[in-house]
TrEMBL record:
Uracil binds at I205, G210, D211, A212. Residues 17-219 form the Phosphoribosyltransferase domain. Keywords: Allosteric enzyme, Glycosyltransferase, GTP-binding, Magnesium, Nucleotide-binding, Transferase. The gene is upp. Pathway: Pyrimidine metabolism; UMP biosynthesis via salvage pathway; UMP from uracil: step 1/1. This is Uracil phosphoribosyltransferase. The keyword Zinc does not apply. Its EC number is 2.4.2.9. It comes from the Bacteria. GO terms for molecular function: GTP binding; magnesium ion binding; uracil phosphoribosyltransferase activity.
Length: 220
């Protein structure tokens, strides 16, 4: 008898799909064309708060002694490297808001990138990162990972600043973009709420959400 064939996984090993029911429900509401900008922003903020839990799940802990009203005890607190959230302008700002609710002490950096509409290459127009980013874990934020060019360029800037501990958070990713990103940065895990079907001829994620920046800021 033939040995049972090994299961095939379409999700690359360093991609973590955050499939919590509340995230998936809210993402469905975001995808709808009829969802207006104010609801879209609120949903993105709520999803980002939940993704903040997932992306920080492996933070190292240490025990400290504290006093409760009744006794002293050993209690856990977060230890280790501090965080830097890096927002990819413009649309990363939508995730940043929710992440800062959960991680208020994090430092914040910005990378300004736009996609050239013809070549789909990422073009940089702004960069401001905290000076001590090399001593921090960076969480790079952009709701859309389409061709992966913007994500790869943003992470390259964070690495160039000396940071060696990096994670990437997106809302929706395309399989093509994940492959490109993981090839460029095999050491950087991607946390995403969905891996969609494919990119269309204009580099948009299908079924996707449309243009995230335009939907967050109501610019179309
Ligand atoms: O994976 P890619 O093919 O690079 O596409 C993804 C990028 O496209 C969008 O930004 P856009 O360039 O539209 O800029 P915006 O956020 O200012 O709208 C999105 O927010 C990502 O940054
Ligand atoms: O589907 C896509 C692709 C790139 N940028 C977006 O905002 N949406
Ligand atoms: Mg955009």
């Amino acid at each position: 008898m033939n040995a049972p064939s090994a299961p095939t996984f379409s999700t690359p090993p360093s991609t973590i799909v955050v499939d919590h029911p509340m995230i998936q429900h809210k993402l469905t509401l975001m995808r709808r064309t009829r969802t207006p900008a104010n609801e879209f922003r609120l949903l993105l903020r709520e999803i980002s708060m939940m993704m903040a839990y997932e992306v920080t799940r492996d933070m190292p802990m240490e025990m400290i002694e504290i006093e409760t009203p009744l006794t002293t005890m050993q209690a856990p607190v977060v230890a280790g490297k501090k965080l830097c959230l890096v927002s990819v302008l413009r649309a990363g700002g939508g995730i940043l808001e929710g992440m800062l609710e959960i991680l208020p002490a994090a430092r914040v950096g910005h990378v300004g990138l736009y996609r050239d509409p013809v070549s789909l290459a990422a073009v940089e127009y702004y960069l401001k990162l905290p000076r001590d980013i090399s001593e921090r874990t960076a969480i790079v934020l952009d709701p859309m990972l389409a061709t992966g060019n913007s994500a790869a360029a943003a992470v390259a800037e964070v690495k160039a600043a000396g940071c060696q501990s990096i994670k990437f958070v997106s809302l929706i990713s395309a399989p093509e973009g994940l492959a490109t990103f993981h090839e460029a940065h095999p050491d950087v895990p991607v946390f995403t709420a969905a891996i969609d079907s494919h990119l269309n001829d204009h580099g948009y994620i299908v079924p996707g959400i449309g243009d995230a920046g335009d939907r967050i800021f109501g610019t179309k």
